[in-house]
Design goal:
Blueprint lengths: L5 H4 L2 H7 L1 H21 L5 H12 L5 H11 L3 H12 L13 H38 L3 E6 L2 E7 H26 L18 H12 L13 H27 L7 E3 L15 H22 L9 H30 L1 E4 L4
Antiparallel strand pairs: 1-2, 3-4
Helix pairs in contact: 3-4, 3-7, 3-9, 4-6, 5-6, 7-8, 7-12, 8-10, 10-11, 10-12, 11-12
Length: 348
């Protein structure tokens, strides 16, 4: 993305939660939690667990080597584990990554990152609902022309249109609870999903890891079952779709010949000094359409062949960060847009 578009199309706070540094921190935290859990369940020794913890807390991998290895391996974890083992040294290096596979680490690290992402979205959705309530309190009784199929219909109140907006945002906020529970899970099932190295202690290890990482434990093997990721994408599009609806309505209300809304800080034109473009409203429509398109890609990634797919999994890595960014950015613009409303409808 071109740098000068960052403030328009990028959520810097979200980027800090899902970017490279956050990725590495999350993957290391998963490896450390795995070591502590397997130690607690008697699968590795206490000395090994302490050595892994000591080395891991100050460990910073060589990023260039991670990138080179990812090109060869298609995934970053083998090189990350190699470097972590080298920093620990014999004899405890063999206890790193006990019983796990790359997908366990990456999927669980994603869940770790999503904890903070969902908290961010939750706070922004709550703020948005308050902003809608404020507009309802100040402008809700103002008259407005109801429109169906973009033609004048019958008189309504601002509160009638706001009720639709509020309902869309509120239902998306409520749905976040289910999205959280389905995605904030530990993935630990080993190379082919059979957890063979853990034996009958796999349940104990998973629950111990989950407690350390503040995650849940699924009742299924999540490696090739990606419905939770598709559902996450659906929810992200639900949020941006709701905000896009608000943006589209505001853009239409801001037309000169309609003038049913007054916005502060509208955008200017390089050629027409009289223009006051509803830029944030337009961007909400753009971001809604972007996420709607990406949903189909995540549904393509539902097709994981056999016990793990390299191509479907990589498709997730390409699509999901962009959808998260679009959602975070839309929430920022929606809050700013609603905060710029000085009048909605006609007074009196």
């Amino acid at each position: 993305m071109t740098g000068f578009l960052d403030l328009l199309l990028k959520d810097e706070a979200l980027e800090a939660l899902i970017g490279t540094d956050a990725d590495i921190t999350a993957m290391i935290s998963v490896e450390l939690a795995l070591a502590r859990a397997t130690c607690a369940c008697g699968l590795i020794g206490e000395d090994a667990a302490k050595a892994i913890a000591t080395a891991g807390h100050g460990f910073r991998p060589d990023l260039a080597k991670l990138s080179e290895a990812a090109l060869k391996d298609g995934v970053v974890v083998p090189e990350l584990v190699r470097q972590l083992r080298a920093s620990i040294g014999a004899p405890h290096d063999v206890s790193v990554h006990f019983g796990a596979t790359s997908q366990d680490i990456i999927d669980t690290a994603l869940a770790v990152k999503l904890i903070a992402v969902f908290e961010l979205f939750d706070a922004r959705l709550k703020a948005l609902l308050k902003s809608l309530d404020h507009i309802a309190a100040t402008s809700g009784d103002n008259p407005l022309t109801g429109r169906t199929r973009m033609q004048a219909a019958i008189p309504i109140r601002v509160s009638d249109r706001l009720a639709v907006w509020h309902g869309l945002v509120e239902r998306a906020h409520i749905a976040l609870g289910e999205v959280r529970s389905h995605n904030l899970i530990v993935s630990l099932a080993g190379p082919a999903g059979t957890s063979e190295k853990f034996g009958d202690r796999i349940g104990d290890v998973r629950h111990a890891m989950a407690a350390l990482l503040h995650l849940g434990v699924p009742d299924y093997v999540p490696h090739a079952a990606r419905d939770r990721i598709a559902a996450l994408g659906n929810w992200l599009s639900q949020v941006t779709g709701a905000l896009g609806k608000i943006g589209q309505d505001i853009a239409l209300m801001a037309q000169n010949e309609i003038a049913e809304i007054a916005l502060s800080g509208a955008g200017g034109s390089s050629a027409m000094a009289h223009k006051q473009n509803p830029v944030r409203a337009e961007v909400l429509v753009t971001l809604a359409r972007y996420n709607a398109v990406q949903v189909s890609g995540l549904h393509q990634s539902l097709v994981h062949e056999q016990e793990r797919s390299g191509s479907a999994w990589t498709l997730e890595w390409m699509i999901l960060p962009g959808m998260l960014n679009a959602t975070g950015t839309a929430l920022i613009h929606a809050e700013a847009l609603l905060g710029s409303v000085s009048r909605m409808g006609s007074a009196g």
